[in-house]
Amino acid sequence: MDKLLNPHGAWIKKNIIATLLLFIAFSGGALAQQAVWSFSDNPHPTRSEMTAKEIQTIEDAYKSGDLNIMCPNAIDVAYGIYQDRYPDFLNAGDKEKNLLNWKAHVISAQRTALSVCVFYTAMLKFSPLPELPEQSDFYFCGVYSRLPQNDLELDYADAIDELLTLVEAEAISGAISMLGAKDVTKTIVLNPDIKYYFSSLLLPRMDANETISKLVDFSGDLTQERREFVELAAKNFDLQAVLDTTKPCSGVAKN
Fold first, then answer.
1. How far apart are CA 176 and CA 179, in angstroms?
2. Each residue of 128-139: pLDDT tens digit?
3. Quick one: which of 176, 181, 227 has its CA closest to 205?
4. In this structure, which long-range contacts are made by residues 211-214, counting pairs with CB atoms below 8 Å and at least 24 apart in sequence?
5. Whether the Cβ atoms of residue 131 and residue 186 lie closer than 8 Å to each other
6. CA 180: distance to chain centroid?
7. pTM (two decimals)
8. Which H or E element spans position 105?
9. Is the pLDDT of residue 6 over 80?
10. In the predicted model, what is the mean pLDDT of residues 174-186?
11. Distances in Å between the alpha carbon of 52 and those of 35, 73, 138, 147?
């Protein structure tokens, strides 16, 4: 995880997971699902629904204590349990989309420990990617500044798109992740109205956690009309409405 952090973002590793654990229960947004597969009809099992062997396998996956090892292992084990329970899921569609849709289901269903690991591993995807050139004009501000033009930019776009899918499935933890992303990658530089949306979601919880207080950002210069629009969208957990109407990115990404 240390590779993810710049000197000004060192608090994230210690505090972001604790924050996610505290607030994962407050969720909003829609579950991304494939039309041919219903997670409502085929939910991931709760602990009380698991066999003793499944529970032991899950507990073994969490024993490491190192999030970089523990979280990928826990996700692999839990996903294996789901596939064993529902073998037809293997034929439900694209392998990568299946996994992403299952992750969105897990976090929207408030499987707390797994949810934290899902967001954590999504952020880890930025870690092995080489940094883009200093003056790169490719980034995500609420929309993409432009289409990716090479394999590295495509890799960044894939990582951002996965994070966005998860954000739409679980609003509060998603807001924490998106507002903290500036300390993880230079390819996410949010427009003021997008930051206002996520900050509005976290505002009622500012006093409960120091990390959230550091993340909330209302500094953007928005018109009253835009401010009210974003506030209503946040009240309805309608991120898409804000993404669809935000301004294009401008210039080189600057955090």
1. 5
2. 999 998 888 999
3. 176
4. 211/11, 211/15, 211/16, 211/18, 211/19, 211/176, 212/19, 212/23, 212/176, 214/11
5. yes
6. 10
7. 0.78
8. helix 95-108
9. no
10. 90
11. 32, 18, 48, 48
Flag whether pLDDT at 229 surpasses 50: yes
pLDDT at 219 over 50: yes
Number of residues assigned to the chain:
255
DSSP 85: H
Domain ranges of the chain: 2-245
Q: Secondary structure of 131-155 in the HEC alphabet?
A: CCCCCCCCCECCCECCCCCCHHHHH
Q: What is the pLDDT of residues 18-75, one digit of tens each?
A: 555 544 444 433 333 334 789 999 999 988 999 999 999 999 998 877 888 999 999 9
Whole-number pLDDT of residue 251: 66
At residue 238, what is the residue type? D
User: Distance between CA atoms of 5 and 3, rounded to whole angstroms?
Assistant: 6
- Report the C-alpha gap between 156 and 216 in whole angstroms: 25
Record the tokens describing residue 142, joined without a space: 């609420």
pLDDT (tens digit per residue) in 89-136: 988 878 899 999 999 999 988 766 788 899 999 999 999 999 998 888
**Mean pLDDT across the chain:** 83
- Angstrom CA distances, 221 to 61, 152, 243, stand at 46, 33, 17
- Region label for 110, one of left (φ > 0), alpha (ψ between -120 and 50) or beta (otherwise): left
Q: Measured between alpha carbons, how far is 21 from 7 in angstroms, rounded to an integer? A: 24
State the chain's maximal CA–CA distance in angstroms.
57
56 token code pair = 């032991």
